[in-house]
Amino acid sequence: MNTILEELERRRAGARAGGGEKRIAAQHAKGKLTARERLSLLLDEDSFEEFDMFVEHRSHDFGMQANRVPGDGVVTGQGAINGRLVYVFSKDFTVFGGSLSKAHAEKIVKVQEMAMRNGAPVIGLFDAGGARIQEGVDSLAGYADIFLQNVLASGVVPQISVIMGPCAGGDVYSPAITDFIFMVKDTSYMYVTGPDVVKTVINEDVSHEELGGYRVHALKSGVADGAFENDLEALTQVRRLVDFLPLSSREKPPLRDSFDDPERQEASLDTLVPLNPNKPYDMKELILKVVDEADFFEISPDYAKNIIIGLARLDGATVGVVANQPQVLAGVLDIDASRKAARFVRFCDAFNIPLVTFVDVPGFMPGTRQEQGALIKHGAKLLFAYAEATVPKVTVITRKAYGGAFDVMSSKNIRGDLNYAWPTAEIAVMGPKQAVEIIFRADIGDAERIAAREAEYKAHFANPFVAASRGYIDDVIMPHGTRRRLVRALASLRNKSVQNPYKKHDNIPL
Ligand code: HXC
Questions:
Q1: Domain 267-425+463-492, what architecture?
Q2: How high is the mean pLDDT of the chain?
Q3: Which residue from 62, 260, 363, 448 puts its CA 20 to 30 A from 307's CA?
C-alpha cells in the first residue's frame, strides 16, 4: 500500500515540477509567476481541485515520444473565488512553451464542458505559444474543439481570459471569443504570430511590445479590456470582477450587503454640469458619487475614453454602467466608442445585469475617417445592442442628447424602461449653431439675426421640457437625488419580463 501511495506522490511531484527548475527560474526572472502560483493567487485558499494532472501528449514525431511532461503544459481544475465556484485553466510556459497538443486541448475542453453543465465561469490564464508545432493538424483540431466550446459557452457562462506571457495563434483566438481579456503590462503580448515568424514571412523587424504589447491592445486596438502592473494585480482584479457577475446566465447577479444608504443625496452633483454647455466635466465623478461605496470596476479604461463602461452596484445589486465622457472628444460617439459600449451592453444583457446609462453626447463623430471606417455599421451595433436588450434599462440625460445619439443611448423608444433628465439636459436634433445655420441659411451673413435665431432655438430645445411634455422623458429629476431615483427605478424593475420575438438568432451588424 505504501508503495502505491509513494508512487502517487512521486507522480504528483513530477507534474508539479512542470518544465523543470531551470525553466521555472527563467519564468521568475522575467517577472512572471508559474501556472500553479497564479492559480493559488486567483483562487480561495485550499479551494483548488486539479483534474488531469497525469495526462501526457501522444505524439511520436520529432522525438517527442522521449519528451513527455505529466499535465502537458496546462493546469486545469475547479476552485472558488470568495466561495463561488469557477473553472480554471492555466497555461504552463515552462512545458513546451505552453503550446497546445491534442491532449492539452482535451483537458481544456473538459473544464469548458463542466463549466457549462454546472453553470460557473471559466477563467483562462494564458502564457503560451499557440499550436504545438510538432503535432501539426492534431493541434489545430484541438484548438477548433476549444473555439467551439468558447462559442457555445458565450452568453451561458462568463468567460475571462488573462494574458500573462507571449501568446500567439490559438492562444489569442480563444481569448478573442471570451467576454473579457486582461493583460499584464510589459510581460504579456498578443499576436497571431510572434516577431520571429513576422520576420520570416514579411521581413518586418518588430519587437514583441510593438507587435502586441499592452499599449497596442489596451490603448489602440481595444482587443484587451484592461492591463495591470503585474501578475498579482491582474489576478486580484479578476477576483474583484468575478464578485460582480452571476455564475451563469441562469442566475441573477449576486446581491451583496451594502453599507451605502440607498437614499443618500449628493448636493455637489447640482453643480457638476458647468453653465457653459461647451465646457467639459468629468462624468466619472457622477458615477463614483452615485454607485455603492464608489466601487466601480471600469472596463477598457484606456481605450475609447469618450465612453465609460464598467460594473458597479446600486443598493447591493450589480449594474452595468455606460456613460458618455464629455471630458474626451466632448463625449462624441465614434467607431471605437460604439464598439466598446455595444459589446458591453450585450454582455450585460446576456447575464441579466441591468443597464444604467448616463448621457451627455453631442452626436456621432462626423468626417471622412469615421465614414471610411464604417461608422454607420459600428454605430448601429450600439443601437442594436440597446434595442435588443431585455434587462432593466434606466437612463439619465445630464446634458446633451443630440441627434441619433439621443436615440441610441437607451432612449425610451428603444425600450428604455425609465428615462430621466437633469434640468440641465438639452434634447435636440443638433446643437444650436449647426441647427440655425441649416434652417436659417439665408440669415448667415447677418450676425444679429443669427444670434437671435440661436437664442430662440436654445430657449425651445436647450432644456428637457419639450421631451418631457411628449413623454420621451419620464421625469426631470434633481441631480442630488440621482442615486435615490436610480435605486427606486431598479427596485421597481426587478421582476421585469419582456420577450423578443422568436428567432434562431439575430443578425447584429458586424
Ligand atoms: C512547440 C514551442 C512553441 C510551439 C514555443 N515553444 N512555441 N514548442 N510549439 N508553438 C517552445 C520553444 O521551443 C521553447 O522550448 C519554449 O517553448 C520557449 O520558447 P522560446 O521561443 O524560447 O520563448 P520566447 O523567446 O519567450 O518566445 C515565445 C514565443 C515564441 C513568442 C511564443 O516561442 C514563438 O514565436 N513561438 C511560435 C508562435 C507561433 O507562431 N505559434 C503557432 C501559431 S498558429 P525549450 O525546450 O527551449 O524550452 C496557431 C494555430 C491555431 O496557434 C489556430 C488559430 C486560428
A1: Alpha-Beta Complex (3.90)
A2: 96
A3: 260
